[in-house]
Amino acid sequence: MRAIRRFTVRPVLPDSLKPLGDLVNNLRWSWHPETQDLFAAIDPERWDACGHDPVRLLGSVPTDRLHELAADKKFLRMLELAHADLEQYLTGDRWYQSSAGDTAPRSIAYFSPEFGITAVLPQYSGGLGILAGDHLKTASDLGVPIVGVGLLYRHGYFQQSLSREAWQEERYPLLDPDGLPISVLREEDGSPAKISIGLPGDESLTARIWIAQVGRVPLLLLDSDVEENSEVVRDVTDRLYGGTTEHRLRQELLLGVGGVRALRAFSRITGAPDPEVFHTNEGHAGFLGLERIRELTEGPAGLDYPTALEVSRAGTVFTTHTPVPAGIDRFPRDLVEQYFGGENACHGVPVDRILALGSEDYTGGDPSVFNMAVMGFRLSQRANGVSLLHGEVSRGMFGGLWPEFDPEERPITSITNGVHGPTWVAREVFELAEKQGVDPSADRPEQIFEAADKVPGSEIWATKRVLRARLVEDARKRLAESWRHRGATPAELGWIDSALDPDVLTIGFARRVPSYKRLTLMLRDPERLKRILLDPDRPVQLVIAGKSHPADEGGKRLIQEIVKFSDDPEVRHRIVFLPNYDIAMAQPLYPGCDVWLNNPLRPYEACGTSGMKAALNGGLNLSILDGWWDEWYDGNNGWAIPSADGVDDPDRRDDIEAHALYDLIENEVAPRFYDEDAEGVPVRWIEMVRHTLRSLGPKVLATRMVRDYVQKLYSPSAATSRALNHDFGGARELATWKQRVLTDWPSVAIDHIESSGVGDSPEIGQTLEVTVYASLGKLRPEDVDVQVVHGRIRHEEDLVDTHAESLQLAETYEDGRHRFTGTVSLAQTGPFGYTARILPRHPMLASPAELGQVALPAHV
Ligand SMILES: *Cc1c(COP(=O)(O)O)cnc(C)c1O
């Protein structure tokens, strides 16, 4: 029989166990091992059986056991300690309160389509979601006042299994919100708080708001599965990244527009401050800017569109995450018109304006699409990529938005991703550091890595073995389960007891399976791979995992290829594919690996974070110089697989890179790993582990990343935002100024350039005096920045390594003409060149490229 309705009955805790409720309902337990110990103590077997999910645990523990615990002095003492620790964590001053400064925002809203916080809240698919989860947890640790905004997917992302034929199968288990560690946001009268949004054809989309408490950070999750909605609309939040284009548009409408409305409801009900900065993690939540403009135009402020746009832009930060053009979120223009026009049009944000924001109206753009990333840049004053290299690639990729500017001047900066230490570092690694007298709970996590030099090599090695053995054990369990699912009988599974070996060099490779990540590069020469795995003296084992997007047949074929290879009895004890890569698998996987392999097609890996997690656990990276590794590989903290950039034939490129990979494993990695001293410790390997921890540890931690966001983006954004928003005078002035500059810009020109002070044979140390005669039309000299730009010369006349120096106004003539002067000192020998240019100037601009305008000398 099928149930027509289901719900989860929560237990009533005896009084003395009431604090347990607080500990279960705050997800801080997921990165706090002591709280996990407390849950385990309730019933160790049940704790394991329910996948370390405290809500399920409490829902299944017999009442008798609860009463027993209620009288258990030792347990109550543990409970009291854990509860007091949580209280202190939630209320004490942290880094933000002591060090972020006065300009730091009162509150920041962080929007993301997915959040990977813990395995028991499966609302993520991969890196983007894990990063968002790490961002919130780290913000909590640092005391940064963030509120997360996302969607609650009824099925989350799919669970992966394999068919007999090694084909990926997807299951979407129904999640019961009452069984998740979340609670519904309620109005004062106890009814659920709701928001709603108009849809085409007289329909509307209503959503309730769930709250997941992530330490100090509330995460609001919108859920369309409510009675008011039609069947179709209820399904808007059915699953992550599923369905048609229109379905995705509805999800993004709910996330962006609904997200702002949910924040307003949250502030109204709880008294939380309104966010001053809105951060959108990738373009999917970009519609949030439209909703904020609507509030300002149609609400009590009654601003005009250009002024409201300035207000909204000043307080918005946009992070782009993909250098893969196909990964950019685009909608048919008509569809956007349908959703924001007609009966849903609002006079404050006319649909033409909206279409213009997402339009690819540049060379090479497609006029029929609405591009969410392009809108993201236009609706946010500050934007970034997620590694140095990705910032550079993004400045190239979106160059059409600032066609007159050299790539390095386009207003996209970069903040390299990081990972949340307490989530991803094995407890044993923290304990090694603690034994050296380091307190990892202190505000200086980099201390842990200083301890790396003090811990004896033999202890590091022993700990790595413990971690490897744990991975082997976990992998065997998963393999057995997978084979049962694939239809094997128990008698056929004996070999699994000796699959993998806790003393063999272990290489990990786990990630989603889009083609650029090249899951099967290692299979390029199967015989050579076999020889590497089966080497009698220096064997290697590979642990592989990854999900393919359900609609990506190509990705599924790659998985099938690798699984078929690993099914071979000759190698199956040395290479395994573990289905259903998720946080639960990842946590023992990274620490258990000696080497983390990454071989993407450069430069398509925007950052990558799994290698960071491996590094924090003493794993060495073996990777193509892409994403974060391009930035921080220093020659001694792992290995760089040379990439055959510029080889156009993809097959040949794969060949070259695969062989470089085999060579590295055979000649560098394996010999070093197996080169043990008399005590059985591979001294040179350990040296590299120490160097990895020291050189990468502090950089790859998300504490560094979140501090960077606060200092480089959130605080400047809040400062501009405040300056503009004070009775909106600043915004009005800026909007009017921009309009004026854009109207009059065609009359801005460089008429003539003169220089003196350097004779026929220029020498280092001399000073060049530059004079620029400029026509500014109706603009005033203070509206512009007249610059001399100088640098080295490459390819005859290209200026590189440029520096810009502002010139001073020297004289004003009739008809809007002016003379500007300044000097440049010749500080470098070799080919030197200069030019002049005029840029718009206003104190509230975050970048001189913001208006996309520049006047250069006419070419003769
Ligand atoms: C870290 C992590 C990712 C992202 O790793 P990349 O290196 O960015 O591919 C994906 N899934 C899980 C479960 C992770 O823990």
Automatic annotation (TrEMBL):
All residue ranges annotated as the DUF3417 domain in the record: 13-121
Similarity annotation: Belongs to the glycogen phosphorylase family.
Top-rank lineage group of the source organism: Bacteria
Gene expressing this chain: glgP
PANTHER family in the record: GLYCOGEN PHOSPHORYLASE
Stated name of the protein: glycogen phosphorylase
Catalyses which reaction(s): [(1->4)-alpha-D-glucosyl](n) + phosphate = [(1->4)-alpha-D-glucosyl](n-1) + alpha-D-glucose 1-phosphate
NCBIfam families, A to Z: more_P_ylases
InterPro entries named in the record: Agluc_phsphrylas (IPR011834), Glyco_trans_35 (IPR000811), Glycogen/Maltodextrin_Phosph (IPR052182), Glycogen_phosphorylase_DUF3417 (IPR024517), Pyridoxal_P_attach_site (IPR035090)
EC numbers, comma separated: 2.4.1.1
Protein purpose: Phosphorylase is an important allosteric enzyme in carbohydrate metabolism. Enzymes from different sources differ in their regulatory mechanisms and in their natural substrates. However, all known phosphorylases share catalytic and structural properties.
Listed cofactors: pyridoxal 5'-phosphate
Keyword annotations from UniProtKB, A to Z: Allosteric enzyme, Carbohydrate metabolism, Glycosyltransferase, Pyridoxal phosphate, Transferase
